[in-house]
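Backbone-to-sequence.
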């Protein structure tokens, strides 16, 4: 079988492309996961900046209740001992059974108290699914230490990662096609 120069070039680019995809595809999700972790952490830090200018926990809770219908993720605020002062979704799910003083020992909260901020994926008994948690420790204007924790369903992150990986394959295929012309 005699191949023209153009066909040989296309075939070699095709083989090179699939070799490149086979090597890079398993690692493509790592920077995407890091990007999502950073985005969630930035959003949590944004909540902490809004809350740290308030003097009392009552003022914080009032502010959060006023804004809770604009939250598309779970938002919780805890004091240093772990008392949950506010939880955007637990209050709705548990209704009258929600106790704003219950204590949580969530690992991401302990990590945030130690490091200032943290990210962790864990199973939520309340929501019966894995959630990506971010937490940021901050001091209020009144000097007390609090932790704001946000949670986002891991399955949505995994879906977005899948879309990014698919986009990577399509973009790479398109570039292969362009270079083969």
């Amino acid at each position: 079988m005699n191949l023209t120069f153009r066909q040989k070039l296309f075939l070699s680019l095709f083989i090179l492309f699939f070799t490149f995809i086979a090597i890079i595809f398993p690692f493509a999700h790592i920077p995407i996961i890091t990007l999502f972790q950073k985005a969630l952490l930035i959003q949590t830090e944004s909540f902490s900046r809004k809350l740290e200018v308030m003097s009392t926990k009552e003022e914080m809770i009032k502010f959060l209740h006023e804004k809770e219908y604009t939250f598309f993720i779970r938002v919780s605020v805890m004091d240093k001992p772990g008392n949950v002062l506010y939880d955007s979704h637990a209050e709705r799910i548990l209704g009258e059974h929600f106790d704003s003083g219950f204590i949580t020992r969530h690992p991401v909260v302990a990590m945030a108290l130690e490091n200032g901020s943290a990210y962790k994926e864990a199973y939520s008994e309340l929501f019966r699914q894995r959630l990506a948690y971010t937490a940021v420790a901050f001091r209020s204007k009144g000097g007390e230490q609090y932790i704001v924790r946000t949670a986002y369903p891991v399955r949505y992150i995994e879906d977005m990662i899948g879309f990014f990986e698919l986009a990577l394959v399509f973009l790479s295929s398109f570039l292969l096609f362009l270079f083969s012309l």
